[in-house]
């Protein structure tokens, strides 16, 4: 799931347990290691860039996240990486990066059309000549939210080895391309469960391409899964590699 709940320090420390390293991380790490300068938008606990730094990445690595608690974790694990608090409005980058990534379905928290357009324009401005913007969003055709039910409880352990239960519950039917749900955490050591409410946007491939084009970005490749399988009507993911259009204004 997306890290919208993890502004709390205790929950931020749980993030990597709830979201263990997987094929998506391997996919992005390969891209990061082959790029000279990288911006990770919504970097969370920083594990992607930290892994790249530990692997000997020789260039500039910048992680951006609006949650200070997440960046506490990031700075602990990789103090040599440049960690920036905020969203894409935090800095005015101008062609600074060969690669911009948004992992962990962070793209789906951009709900409004204007918010999305502004974010994509900022990404476009941050990309240098030949740069790439790579991100993923859940394919609406797979209807992933139908599996976000309270009976599907996950149990993870915190930094002290204590169990924490996690579950999700969707609120009603989707409203257009938006799905609202709650994410709840419970532990025997807490006096009450901790919950947050969030909304995600599920854009279809055609709408996604339209927003990208409006920001001067064109789709180079799209995949339906982390093995680079073809994008179909029911693929679990829409994994997109985009690049600046030659005719786009800067």
Quick overview:
This protein is of the alpha/beta class and 250 residues long. The chain has seven helices and eleven strands.
What can you see in these coordinates?
24% of the residues lie in helices and 31% in strands. With 250 residues, the protein is of the alpha/beta class. The chain has 2 domains: 9-139 and 203-244, Vaccinia Virus protein VP39 (Rossmann fold, 3-Layer(aba) Sandwich), CATH 3.40.50; 142-201. The chain has a 7-stranded mixed sheet, sandwiched between helices. The chain has a 4-stranded antiparallel sheet with strand order 6-7-8-9, with no helix packed on it. The chain is globular and about 55 Å long. The relative contact order is 0.15. Residues 1-6 have low confidence and may be disordered.
Q: In the CATH hierarchy, what is the superfamily of the largest domain?
A: Vaccinia Virus protein VP39
Number of β-strand runs: 11
Kindly identify the CATH topology of the largest domain.
Rossmann fold
Return the average pLDDT rounded to an integer.
92
Question: Would you list the SSEs in sequence order as H and E?
Answer: HHHEHEHEEHEEEEEHEE
Q: Which value, in Å, is the CA radius of gyration?
A: 18 Å
In total, the number of domains comes to 2
What are the SSEs and their pairings?
Elements: H1 9-12, H2 15-18, H3 23-33, E1 37-41, H4 47-54, E2 60-65, H5 68-77, E3 82-85, E4 97-102, H6 113-126, E5 127-138, E6 154-157, E7 163-170, E8 178-186, E9 194-201, H7 205-214, E10 217-223, E11 237-244
Parallel strand pairs: 1-2, 1-4, 2-3, 4-5
Antiparallel strand pairs: 5-11, 6-7, 7-8, 8-9, 10-11
Helix pairs in contact: 3-4
